[in-house]
Amino acid sequence: MSMLLEIESLLKEVDDEFIPSLSSLVNLAEYSQKLHKNATIFSNHDRGKLVALLAVYRTDTVNKVAYCPMLAVAKTHRSYGLGASLVRSAIELLKKTEFRIFRLEVYKTNLGVLAFYKKLGFSIESETESSVFLELNLDQNS
Length: 142
Known about the structure:
The chain is of the alpha+beta class. It is built from four helices and six strands, in the order ααβββαβαββ. It has helices at residues 3-14, 28-38, 82-96, 111-119; strands spanning 40-46, 49-60, 65-73, 101-107, 123-127, 131-137. A hairpin with a 2-residue loop joins β1 (40-46) and β2 (49-60). It is globular and about 40 Å long. The chain starts with a helix and ends in a 5-residue tail after the last strand.
């Protein structure tokens, strides 16, 4: 299976864990293609199957701000530290490529994910009615 199809398959598997569901916001096939084409993908496979992925956009090379639009871990592979490992790998690459800020958005209803990112050193930078925007200053996070 191609990486593009693996991304789509994993997103379908975790779709119902997003509130609202990811598929109610985007076409999963098109979104998978966008991630595959435009993002740096950090991934874990188990027995040839994609079980965890972190997508990072590194397009703001002027301000050196990276954005994480997606972290997904298969239900069968939770609590093994895969998500944290992928985030740490991304942070390492971002520092090596002199990025200064790592940003992401989490729905306020997803308290577990908010705690996860806070544990990894991210702090809340702003909020909307439905979302929390988190940021990690890579200059201070050595």
